[in-house]
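Note to self: keep these together.
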Amino acid sequence: MQAFALPKHIEILLVEDSPADVLITQDALAEVHLLNTIHVVEDGVEALAFLRKEVPYTAVPRPDLILLDLNLPRKSGREVLAEIKADPVLKSIPVVVLTTSQAEEDVWKAYDLHANCYVVKPLDFATFVQAVRSIRHFWLCVVTLPVDSDNG
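Structure:
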């Protein structure tokens, strides 16, 4: 089996309002040995402020990958996704919708808004780790992503 070289360091923005889901995602990323910095914001307004480097996020790096929950306070994940994909500066960042919703209308709406993929959060940790491993392998090993000049 061919080994794929991973970038040295991955910046991930996790947009998630559930502290339990944040912990599980962090644990799953650690389990798959992904060298990363995971930045966590709890709602859609914070997510957009982070991405636009507004106060208090003026010194944050551009994420290489966004993991976005749909059901967020203040501004929904759908609204965040629409704004990201409409912004010429942000639209090239891959957005993985990572949510508990299996509703067909949510899947369709996410893809209509140009989500790069839609992953339903598995209920048990082992399956969640496998889902994160698959996300890691595809987005960080298989595809070629643009390199942002600000991140090197």
